[in-house]
Amino acid sequence: QVQLIESGGGSVQAGASLRVSCTSSLRPFGNYAMGWFRQAPGKEREFVAGISGKGVHTSYQDDLKGRFTISRENAKSTVYLQMSSLKPEDTAVYYCAAKQAFNRAITTREGYDYWGQGTQVTVSS
Q1: Of residues 27, 30, 13, the one with CA closest to residue 90
Q2: What whole-number distance in Å separates Cα of residue 94 and Cα of residue 9?
Q3: Sign of the CA dihedral running 52, 54, 57, 59
Q4: How many Cα neighbours within 13 Å face the side chain of 4?
Q5: Which of 12, 22, 28 is nearest to 84 (CA)?
Q6: Alpha-carbon span 117 to 5, nearest angstrom
Q7: pLDDT tens by residue, the chain, 125 residues
Q8: For residue 11, what are the CA distances in angstroms to 19, 81, 99, 119?
Q9: How distant is the alpha carbon of residue 63 from its chain centre?
Q10: How far apart are CA 33 and CA 13, in angstroms?
Q11: Rounded distance between C-alpha atoms, residue 71 and residue 27, angstroms
């Protein structure tokens, strides 16, 4: 029924940039807050970034602020995560998440209702 599909992952060297995307079947897309999480092998899933339905409000994990940027194009039902100056510790599966909400960014895993299956990002030194 609900589909969140991530794309754009891959293998890059440290210092490179990469943009991952998530397309959603949820409509109207602008009624949903969207977020990105990541999970490395053997570790817990952690919050990366969130954006409100209209894109006005954003939130970031403190350690990633300045390197990662979340954005959305509601006409394309797509949310993006632009990653810059990538480090080996950024290696993880990156997941897209959605929650019906209009004017807030959501920062917790339990705050989201829908999840994609993830896209792998690997950063080598």
Answers
A1: 13
A2: 8
A3: positive
A4: 26
A5: 12
A6: 7
A7: 899 999 999 999 999 999 999 999 999 999 999 999 999 999 999 999 999 999 999 999 998 989 999 999 999 999 999 999 999 999 999 999 999 998 999 999 999 999 999 999 999 99
A8: 12, 16, 29, 11
A9: 15
A10: 31
A11: 18
Structure tokens at 25: 């079947």
Q: How far apart are CA 113 and CA 97, in angstroms?
A: 7
For residue 14, the one-letter residue type is A
| The amino acid at 8 | G
Cα 50-120-88 angle, rounded to 5 deg: 85
Between β-strands 92-100 and 114-115, what pairing exists: parallel, antiparallel or unpaired? Answer: antiparallel
